[in-house]
Amino acid sequence: MTRDFFERQRRREQSPVPELWDLLDRVRDPELPVLSIWDLGVLCDVKQTGEKVVVTITPTYSGCPAMETIRSDIERVLGEAGMRRLEIRTRLAPAWSSTWISPEGCDKLRDYGIAPPQNQSDLTPDAGLACPRCGSADTRCISEFGSTACKALFQCNDCREPFDYFKDI
Amino acid sequence: MSDEDLKQATLDYTLRLGDDALVLGQRISEWVSNGPFLEEDIAYGNVALDYIGRARMYYGYAAELAADGRSEDDFAYLRSEREFRNYLINELPRGDFAYSQVRQLLVDQFNTAFLDRLVESRDATLAAIAAKGIKETRYHLRRSREWVLRLGDGTAESRRRAQKGLDDLWGYTHELFEPDALEQRLAKAGIGVDTAALKSQWQQAVAATLGEATLNLPQEDWAVRGGRTGYHTEYLGHLLGELQSIYRSYPGCRW
Question: Has this prediction a pTM greater than 0.80?
Fold first, then answer.
């Protein structure tokens, strides 16, 4: 578990509105539906003052188009739960990092067929990532840029399957 | 400088940075469905998206500073060519693949140095945008550097094209390191970056890559300037025409 994740988890555990955090677990990343915005680290904070709810989120990559969908999904989920006064704030600093993904999130990514970030604060390795399908380390990077901004494309030399790698950033 | 002057200067500066990001992002998005192969097509799409996302952050902040009802979209879509203040190198047509990759190397190397300083800005929002951008730019630079090595030290044809791209682009790099009065003032105020101070670092890094790529450093015998004063090449108007036509044709349209 990284320190960044630990701090975010403490914020959630000490929150006076745990039910709102739980509700927001229903909001998923549209491109990676196995991950909630909590798992992904996009959900930074939830606060309630009187009837007003303020949700703070942070983008993964500058141009990530999933942010628009995530915002409207937050509105929908909280709206359905009867919250009428809602503000969604985007926070840029500190900049999102792949170290914010929850340990459960990393497991879910692997089960989904995506190699989770290495979190060695390095650029993408050329080879040697564990294949999420067969576990072999005999793999190679095909392209640093994959189907979304956050992923690189790899191939396993053993089972021959291509797979995505969630990049360190 | 009064607080009000400083705010106006910061707004103008933020728009310049937004213009650089939007124009380059739009330009390289032209590679989508035109890349030499699928992975490169996708890579350019990703890099373009990073730049357009960065432009949105700058324009969003500009809208906050302007506080006159203008939105990020108004800055992107309702200003004309002469109002754009991007560096010329960002607007030049995409050319062939070698030309585009050489441009990326020159710009990525510049942005690496630039954003690395901007993260120390006294302006918290500019610092935050830079902190986000620098992580992405490191990935961009790794890709453009590898491509320039591969093309420069590749076949006779790839080398010829990379060298030609470099020769055609070099004269547009000078203005990156010539801050005007506004940029100097903001650098002194600890908000902006003194780009003149980045030149030797940039040159060294670029020269090292070009050397490894067996490409020749061009002669310093010509320079074109004008981006920061709104005097553009003939290409920007066409780019903006395409970028802005929908928004201008259907004002207020939502979908």
Answer: yes
